Amino acid sequence: MSVPTAIVLTVSILVFVVEDQEHIQHLLQEGLTDGGFSVSMASTGEEAIAMLDAEGASFSALITDINLPGQLTGWDVAKHARELSETLPVIYMTGASAHEWASKGVPNSQLMPKPFAVAPAFHSNTRSISVS
Fold first, then answer.
1. Of 4, 64, 65, 70, which sits most exposed with the smallest number of CB within 10 A?
2. Which residues belong to any copy of the Response regulatory domain (predicted)?
């Protein structure tokens, strides 16, 4: 009689991070991967839109800075992301634009004011990220 083999399924939750500051990118990458998430990064709004529109793109959540280099802001990126997936969890990060969140943020989004400590910030904000 053979013993059944256990099947372990791992589900990768891919978080799309849009942040222009390299040191913050590194902190976010480390914090999210330590939390079991896979991470994809963009540095500008234009790069983010292209990645969102790429064939086969399938992100589980978006974490975006608001003030980005180039023509597009994090507000624009999140709006476009929600046009593609209306239930995509969105978390904004900002040090200066929090006062605009109510008027420019997408519905049911969250805001993480900068500066923040990576571990506590992600513990409280990543609960809304799940496999869809």
1. 4
2. 14-129
The domain spanning residue 76 has which CATH number?
Answer: 3.40.50.2300
Q: Could you tell me if residue 1 is inside a domain?
A: no
User: Is residue 109 within 8 Å of 87, Cβ to Cβ?
Assistant: no
- To 10 degrees, what angle do helices 22-34 and 118-125 make? 60
pTM of the model: 0.82
Overall domain count for the chain = 1
Q: Give 56-66 pLDDT, tens digit per residue.
A: 899 999 999 99
For every residue of 23-66, DSSP letters joined together read HHHHHHHHHHHHTT-EEEEESSHHHHHHHHHSTT---SEEEEES
Which contiguous run of DSSP H or E holds residue 92? strand 90-94
- Residue 82 lies in domain: 14-125
Are 42 and 51 in contact, with CB atoms under 8 Å apart? yes
